[in-house]
From TrEMBL:
<feature type="domain" description="Thiaminase-2/PQQC">
    <location>
        <begin position="13"/>
        <end position="223"/>
    </location>
</feature>
<keyword id="KW-0884">PQQ biosynthesis</keyword>
<keyword id="KW-0560">Oxidoreductase</keyword>
<dbReference type="InterPro" id="IPR004305">
    <property type="entry name" value="Thiaminase-2/PQQC"/>
</dbReference>
<protein>
    <recommendedName>
        <fullName>Pyrroloquinoline-quinone synthase</fullName>
        <ecNumber>1.3.3.11</ecNumber>
    </recommendedName>
</protein>
<dbReference type="InterPro" id="IPR039068">
    <property type="entry name" value="PqqC-like"/>
</dbReference>
<comment type="similarity">
    <text>Belongs to the PqqC family.</text>
</comment>
<dbReference type="GO" id="GO:0033732">
    <property type="term" value="F:pyrroloquinoline-quinone synthase activity"/>
</dbReference>
<comment type="pathway">
    <text>Cofactor biosynthesis; pyrroloquinoline quinone biosynthesis.</text>
</comment>
<dbReference type="Pfam" id="PF03070">
    <property type="entry name" value="TENA_THI-4"/>
</dbReference>
<comment type="function">
    <text>Ring cyclization and eight-electron oxidation of 3a-(2-amino-2-carboxyethyl)-4,5-dioxo-4,5,6,7,8,9-hexahydroquinoline-7,9-dicarboxylic-acid to PQQ.</text>
</comment>
<dbReference type="InterPro" id="IPR011845">
    <property type="entry name" value="PqqC"/>
</dbReference>
Amino acid sequence: MQDQAQSREDFEARLRAIGAERYHDRHPFHARLHGGGCTPDEVRAWVINRWMYQSRIPMKDAAFMSRVEDPDLRRAWRKRIEDHDGGIAEGGGIRRWLALARAVGLDPDYVAGGKGIMPATRFAVDAYVRFVRDMPLLDAVAASLTELFAPKIHAQRIEGLLAHYDFADDTSLAYFRKRLTEAPGDVKFGLDYVLTHADTREKQDAAAAALVFKTDVLWAQLDALWHGYVEGNIPPGAWRPGEGMAT
Ligand SMILES: O=C(O)c1cc(C(=O)O)c2c(n1)C(=O)C(=O)c1cc(C(=O)O)[nH]c1-2
């Protein structure tokens, strides 16, 4: 016999426990970055590789929306694409990420071209886009719920980068500051959607598994950075210090 569905409260606590145990704020690269321990080239490697994630977020949200039949859900979701792409004049998160790239000495066109991204980063982020394209909508929304835990990491990053790195200022960190106001509304909506639609134990288990999968997507990216740039095992084809610098 199928287990009974968990109460809304118990299920929410289960989702939050996944973040407490597995979110990438527990990864040593995060501590190294916000604690001021990264070399300038390690910071550059992070900015270059994280571009893969930034550039694919609006694509995965477009993939999600392409499958949604309910106009109310599409209306609520489309803000995510607007947050990242923005308007022609002011741009959005994507442009703010490239401002960070410039601030750490990289040529933004090099970063935006995606050359130099490590294979593991590419595979992890592509897996997330495919997951959102192919899996049930409930699982796709559940996978976005890592954002429940993101405001804390963004606040730590702003504080840590400002304290330890010369490049850090209002312009270079605008991406993270903006996320502090953008993410909470998204995550409130997403959490309510998941708690409401996961109305059987089977769906709750699938949603929890989707969130675990997403924590793996994030963790794998930092593992790759550590292996490549902290331990110095740069994969063939990946960015090498000195390449892609602003002139
Ligand atoms: O800096 C981070 O640690 C971090 C993590 C995450 C996340 O938890 O997936 C996102 C972001 N940042 C972020 O800026 C962002 O726009 C975002 C969108 C999503 C998503 O899955 O839809 N996650 C995240």
